[in-house]
Amino acid sequence: VSSVRVELGARSYDVVIGPGARHELAALLPHGVQRAAIVTQKGLAGPEGAIDIDPGLDHTVIEVPRGERAKSLATLESVARSFALFGLTRSDVVIAVGGGLVTDLAGFAAATWHRGTPVVHVATTLLAQVDAAIGGKTGVNLPEGKNLVGAFWQPHAVICDTELLASLPGAEWRSGRGEVAKYEFIGAGELSGLVLEDQVRACVALKAEVVSKDEQESGRRMVLNYGHTLAHALEALGLAGDAGDLTDAGDSSPLAASAQRFLRHGEAVAVGLCFAGRLARALGRIGDDRVAQHDAVVARYELAGELPAGADRDLLIAHMRRDKKSKGDLTFMLDGPNGVEPVRGVDPAVVGSVLDEMSKEARRR
Ligand SMILES: NC(=O)c1ccc[n+]([C@@H]2O[C@H](COP(=O)([O-])OP(=O)(O)OC[C@H]3O[C@@H](n4cnc5c(N)ncnc54)[C@H](O)[C@@H]3O)[C@@H](O)[C@H]2O)c1
Ligand SMILES: [Zn+2]
Predict the structure, then answer these.
(1) How far is CA 175 from the centre of its chain?
(2) Neighbours of 122 (CB within 10 A)
(3) φ and ψ at residue 255, rounded to 5 degrees
(4) What is the radius of gyration, based on Cα positions, of the chain?
(5) Could you give the 3-state DSSP secondary structure of residue 284?
(6) Of 12, 109, 313, 347, which one's alpha carbon is 20 to 30 angstroms from that of 6?
(7) Strands (DSSP E) along 45-124, which ranges?
(8) Is the whole model's pTM more than 0.90, yes or no?
(9) pLDDT at residue 364, as a whole number
(10) Alpha carbon of 39 to those of 83, 106, 162: distances in Å?
(11) Which residues of 211-243 are buried (b: 16+ CB within 10 A; e: fewer)?
(12) Whole-angstrom distance, CA of residue 220 vs CA of residue 205
């Protein structure tokens, strides 16, 4: 077990990483706290859960439903009411035990509870360990879009216990690996050969560095978005996203009927990485070898870089114009001689031809 410091002045904190790191929880809580509210999901933590979490003080366990739809203002209200019932004060602590859904939701609940109560994240998915639990972005979704209501609220500490990942379903592993692959292109170097704990630590260290330079995403933090512009568009088209969305849609959904391969977020990022490589080449920023490297890295993480069938290029482009990086134009984070950086005003015709090229490649396989 080792730790990485996220340097943010008075709001600096440690991310404790490694097998068994969960046993450090009690020692990581803010000094003098009396009570804790654990926010988690059914079957994760708590008495009958798989994950043994012991804050070592008086606590209550609040379970929230699974699926991106539960990351809502309605769930936030029910969590806040459970805090009230328990009598949580701002000198107590919120402990989030779960994936990115739980850390985003519980983090936001903590940010707003009594105008700010400390939160400690115990990240239980690979994606949350390498990404979501670090950096202080919290929030919930609206029917109109993801993460539209939220706040920056840095945790007091983060625990990335790699033992907790043992029960993770395959799709969640793949999703996390897509983000790990992303880190290879934004400065982490080759990670696929490392043991899990070291992979997580390298990703956390890079994210920590980026966040401490640009806490509120005014510039440098955008590199964390590499591969995400297309990924978000695939999610908007219903080809990727949260597994819960698919389950909730029921068997009558067109997606279930077509047996369309549904990508988890990080799997869509993997497609986005291969796309970003091709787009950078089309714009003369990188050569064939670097494109091949994108494909090779994605393959090494046992992910597919192909555009899923049914991905309509014009709809994808329309969604990518609405990306938060762009101002009505097409803006991408792209590799080049200076590494990954934002590229604005990309010609939609070039984007279209890269998407067409990817569709053709996918059909050839
Ligand atoms: N704040 C940020 O910077 C940031 C960054 C990336 C993603 N996110 C957010 O994170 C969310 C996605 O997070 P996620 O991919 O972790 O999904 P998730 O939290 O929905 O977890 C995926 C599934 O795995 C289950 N699960 C969690 N831990 C488990 C374990 N140890 N064993 C077995 N099952 C387990 C969950 O119950 C859930 O069903 C999205 O809402 C996204 O917006 C936030
Ligand atoms: Zn992501």
Answers:
(1) 9
(2) 31
(3) -65, -45
(4) 20
(5) coil
(6) 109
(7) 58-64, 93-98, 119-123
(8) yes
(9) 84
(10) 10, 6, 20
(11) bbebbebeeebbbbbbbbbbbbbbbbbbbbbbb
(12) 15
State residue 46's pLDDT score: 65
Question: What pLDDT, on the 0 to 100 scale, is given for residue 316?
Answer: 97
Pocket test for ligand 1, best of 69, 104, 137, 173 (most atoms within 8 A of CB): 104
Q: Are 263 and 245 within 8 A, CB to CB?
A: no
Tell me which residues of the chain have a pLDDT lower than 50.
246-259
Instruction: Identify any residues that bridge with 139 across adjacent strands, giving them in sequence order.
Output: 150
Cα–Cα dist 108/353, whole Å? 41
Q: Which ligand is nearest to the CA of 102?
A: 1
Measured CA to CA, the distance from residue 279 to residue 286 in angstroms comes to 9
Residue tagged 């934002």 (tokens): 342
| CB-based contacts of 77, cutoff 8 Å, min separation 6 | none
> What torsion, rounded to 10 degrees, do the Cα atoms 225, 185, 159, 215 define?
-40
Report how far Cα 363 is from the mean position of its chain's Cα atoms. Answer: 30
Around Cβ 353, how many Cβ atoms within 10 Å?
Answer: 15
Q: Pairing between strand 157-160 and 240-241?
A: unpaired
Closest by CA to 167, choosing from 195, 121, 125, 122, is 125
Give the Å distance between the CA of 266 and the centre of ligand 2: 6
DSSP helix/strand/coil, 23: helix
CA neighbours closer than 13 Å in the CB half-sphere of residue 220: 11
DSSP letter for 352, please. Answer: H
Phi and psi dihedrals of 339, rounded to 5? 85, -165
